[in-house]
């Protein structure tokens, strides 16, 4: 249950997607609390679409937010957000935490495509995303972080992304930026002065037999194969708009097959 305490908000949200037996996807669980409101939106084809709608400001200092999604065998789920998430300083002391947990079964597909996470001046957020996939699962996962709003310095932001396929870790990386972060985060080996950074993870069973080749995409993005049936795109950019364009172009470059035939049936 959600609640507001002297140390911030405690809230969670949960999505369960299940094949409905008629070629579509049902949502037997769609529960949100506090700033994590969930809304089912109209879709065509076999997938269900869910939007995360910010019902209140957050995450603020001291908040503890958890969002989980489970996609069961044969189900197709697309999750987006209605607007960017803005990490803000709050009245409560201490950092905020935002934990995302994703579970995709064999023969299921998840497209996790939220809007950007913006680290506002004075904020302190630790966000973790952990995806657990069965061997035959499919995933397209995008995460984008923007350091500060227009004309302001960033807050402290630490982001950890972990992806496991068939009980094997294929990606586990952490990036910390802003005041108090380890030195060098804004240097030429990391962000090189850019204000936006993003990752795109694509998991398809076919990649196990035909890995994606490593390639540099201009000066600010690269594609690398991951162990097992997965590929990672990493990119930096001066702002959120150009970052999105880089990631969209990279996904297109991976080929329309990365979207899966089921995804291509949408209009």
Automatic annotation (TrEMBL):
Q: Which InterPro entries match?
A: UreD
- As recorded in Swiss-Prot or TrEMBL, the protein's gene is named ureD
What protein name is recorded for this chain? Urease accessory protein UreD
What family classification does the UniProt entry report for this protein?
Belongs to the UreD family.
Q: Give TM segment ranges.
A: none
Any idea what job this protein has? Required for maturation of urease via the functional incorporation of the urease nickel metallocenter.
Coiled-coil parts of chain: none
Major site of localization recorded for this protein: cytoplasm
Q: Which organism is it from?
A: Streptomyces bangladeshensis
Top-level taxon in the UniProt lineage: Bacteria
Q: How does it assemble?
A: UreD, UreF and UreG form a complex that acts as a GTP-hydrolysis-dependent molecular chaperone, activating the urease apoprotein by helping to assemble the nickel containing metallocenter of UreC. The UreE protein probably delivers the nickel.
């Amino acid at each position: 249950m959600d609640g507001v305490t002297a140390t911030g908000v405690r809230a969670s949200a949960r999505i369960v997607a299940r094949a409905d037996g008629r070629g579509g996807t049902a949502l037997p669980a769609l529960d949100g609390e506090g700033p994590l409101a969930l809304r089912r939106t109209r879709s065509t084809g076999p997938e269900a679409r869910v939007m995360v709608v910010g019902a209140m400001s957050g995450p603020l200092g001291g908040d503890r937010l958890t969002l989980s999604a489970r996609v069961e065998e044969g189900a197709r789920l697309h999750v987006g957000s209605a607007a960017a998430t803005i990490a803000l300083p709050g009245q409560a002391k201490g950092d905020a935490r935002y934990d995302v947990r994703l579970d995709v079964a064999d023969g299921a597909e998840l497209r996790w495509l939220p809007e950007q996470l913006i680290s506002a001046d004075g904020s302190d957020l630790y966000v973790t995303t952990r995806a657990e996939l069965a061997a035959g699962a499919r995933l397209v996962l995008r995460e984008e972080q923007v350091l500060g709003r227009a004309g302001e310095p960033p807050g402290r932001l630490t982001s950890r992304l972990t992806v496991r396929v068939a009980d094997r870790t294929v990606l586990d990386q952490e990036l910390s930026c802003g005041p108090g972060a380890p030195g060098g985060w804004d240097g030429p080996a990391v962000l090189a002065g850019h204000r936006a950074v993003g990752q795109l993870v694509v998991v398809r069973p076919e990649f196990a037999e035909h890995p994606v080749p490593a390639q540099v995409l201009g000066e600010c993005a690269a594609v690398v194969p991951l162990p097992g049936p997965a590929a990672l795109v990493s990119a930096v950019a001066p702002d959120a708009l150009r970052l999105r364009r880089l990631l969209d172009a990279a996904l297109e470059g991976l080929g329309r097959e990365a979207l899966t035939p089921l995804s291509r049936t949408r209009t």
